[in-house]
Amino acid sequence: MASEVRMVFMGTPDFAVPSLQTLVREGYRVAGVVTQPDRPRGRKRELTPSPVKVAAMELGLPVFQPERLRNPENVRRLLEWKPDLIVTAAYGQILPREILETPRYGCINVHASLLPKYRGGAPIHHALIRGEKETGVTIMYMVEALDAGDMLAHRSIPIEEADDVGTLHDKLARVGAQLLRETVPALLEGRVQPVPQDDSQATYAPNIRREDERIDWSRSAWDLVNQIRGLRPWPVAFTLWKGKPLKIWRAEPVPGREAAAPGTVLSQTEEGVIVAAGEGGALCIQELQPAGKRRMTAAEFYRGRQMEPGEILG
């Protein structure tokens, strides 16, 4: 049956690539791939294709990159592929109603959270920032409201203490692809019973803003650790030191501290920079990156440019 169903795949970042590759590997007819336009990246601001575009070209699939999908001409062009099912994964644009209502099997989405928690564009970041112990992937029907469609399947995984956005992203991308492989045949054969979401339990995970990246030293040390790993490896939490951004890549809480205002540097050794945090705690910064410098360990930082106890980070 797989070869009889025409699909369109819509996705953009690395998270979506395993799902696309799985559909092709399972023998589905992917008529085309829709992804965001090439964007300037890097120091030279060179136009760079999305990971999904790169994967699609390697698979020999047609690629369509509309700047604005809602444009009627773009809708018409997409529907010329005559999809029986549209699969999306972190595509990055809202699908207009005409597209949602066209495929006979509907439009389904691979979302990196256990819905209805963490609807929105940055579910992995926010699950870590809020200190969750568990997350997962949900496959759901797409509707015009944000991540609010009926759920077709979900799978949970634990969040380990060592996880950050990078490791959790890779785990969830693999889980999403596996869950998609299991769910699509069941959907096509009518063996799936959609389950409505409980909107009263919904939480939201909007895209990360610049103000979300800045360390608020009045928060507890554990909150700050969760913020740091919830922003690593991108965009990376920061504080200000001598008026310039100081990125903090890795840190851990340390018990107790002397009386000092949050943000006060208490000591610096090769093991780390100890900074007063809120609620009577302190944070040991183990890996950091001063403005214009490379990422370095606390020991490297200690040898190069020492902080003085009493300095204030903010």
UniProtKB/TrEMBL annotation:
Q: Which InterPro entries match?
A: Fmt, Formyl_trans_C, Formyl_trans_C_sf, Formyl_transf_N, Formyl_transf_N_sf, Formyl_transferase-like_C_sf, GART_AS, Met-tRNA-FMT_C
Keyword flag Transferase: yes
Question: What's a single GO MF annotation on this record?
Answer: methionyl-tRNA formyltransferase activity
Q: Which domain of life is it from?
A: Bacteria
GO cellular-component terms in the record? cytosol
Role description: Attaches a formyl group to the free amino group of methionyl-tRNA(fMet). The formyl group appears to play a dual role in the initiator identity of N-formylmethionyl-tRNA by promoting its recognition by IF2 and preventing the misappropriation of this tRNA by the elongation apparatus.
Family of this protein: Belongs to the Fmt family.
The protein here is known as: Methionyl-tRNA formyltransferase
Question: Can you name the source organism?
Answer: Kroppenstedtia eburnea
